[in-house]
Amino acid sequence: MLKIAMISAPESRLPADCTARIRTFAELECRRCENPQELAVFAADADLVWLFGANVALTADVLPQLTRCKAILRSGSGLDAIPVDAARKLGMRVYNTPESISESVAEHAVTLLFALARHITVFDGQVRNGEWELATELTPRHLTGRTLGVVGYGLIAHAVEKMVSGFGMKVLHYDPAYPDSIPLEDLLRQSDFVSLHCPLTPETTHLMNPERFAMMKPGALLVNTSRGAVIDEAALLEALENGTLGGAALDVLNDEPPKPDNPLLKSGKVILTPHIAAFSTDFEKNFWRCSADRLEKAVRSNFTE
Fold first, then answer.
1. What is the pLDDT of residues 197-235, one digit of tens each?
2. What DSSP character marks residue 56?
3. 227 is catalytic
4. Which of 18, 112, 227, 291 is geometrically suited to a Cys-Cys bond with 200, CB 3.0 to 4.6 A?
């Protein structure tokens, strides 16, 4: 049987039904590898390396030592935790499971957008402080008929589009993988709200920079449930302070957790959540089921799909 090396956690961290299922089609060994040297020894005879979350042990330099490895699976969405280019140059397949979290992340993105547009967190604080009268400068935004621009048009963005369709919102999308996408600059100029769903790559690092913020509609709202580094945080703060942006809702930041002196923590125009968009009551079930599905498909095809 082919061998899978789980490098992010000991077996006790994985559901028993998941590991039992995997062992019907492959050998499985589990360990949290803390560095590349440990990983090189542990996964030396593995046909597939499996991880979730970030993993400092999986580097481009260690990959050539994994001479039997034919594929890498990162459970969840995004591939920024994997040296993708180095893996592919060695002929390794690279997989992930965005379907395991797409609905949950989409729901969180829409929730953040609605909370931001309707000033929910601000009004909650006012009521708790004994303030009942509506502050005119914080008039809630109307959602119906407005335009939402999604940057990145994968499973999560598609789910967001479906969810907001019930509010009669117009959705624009930018994604180089989709020929019918509009240019990013046009999306930013036309959108009342912008939601980020792109992977973190060299091309998308600080995609939202001073020039891009200047293109947005005055007072537009920004939601980010992708990766923190997609946004230049200094430029974001400037855009919020000078009124270019009306507000931002962020589930992800450049530094996680944020440093205590991060100015975003003190901004009344920002809603923050602790990188929990993927988590829900169904997270564990979906996460491990989709991981086992992807592993079985990869192994049974001998890594041809």
1. 999 999 999 999 999 999 999 999 999 999 999 999 999
2. T
3. yes
4. 227
d(CA 130, CA 25): 61
Q: How far apart are CA 10 and CA 210, in angstroms?
A: 44
Q: Which of 227, 233, 289, 294 is catalytic?
A: 227
Beta bridge partners of 29: 5
- 119-139 pLDDT tens trace: 999 999 988 988 888 755 778
3-class SS string, 61-93: CCHHHCCCCCEEEEECCCCCCCCHHHHHHCCCE
The active-site residue, picked from 11, 185, 256, 284, is 256
Q: What is the pLDDT of residue 131?
A: 86
Exposed/middle/buried for residue 211 (C-beta within 10 Å: 0-12, 13-18, 19+):
exposed
What residues have CB less than 8 Å from 271, skipping those under 6 apart?
112, 115, 116, 121, 247, 248, 249, 250
Q: Is 186 buried (19+), middle (13-18) or exposed (0-12) by CB count in 10 A? A: middle
The reported pTM is 0.89
What mean pLDDT, rounded, does the chain reach? Answer: 95
Cα 51–159–101 angle (5° rounding)? 20
The DSSP result for 159-193, as a single string, is: HHHHHHGGGT-EEEEE-TT-TTPPPHHHHHHH-SE
Evaluate if residue 286 carries a pLDDT over 70: yes
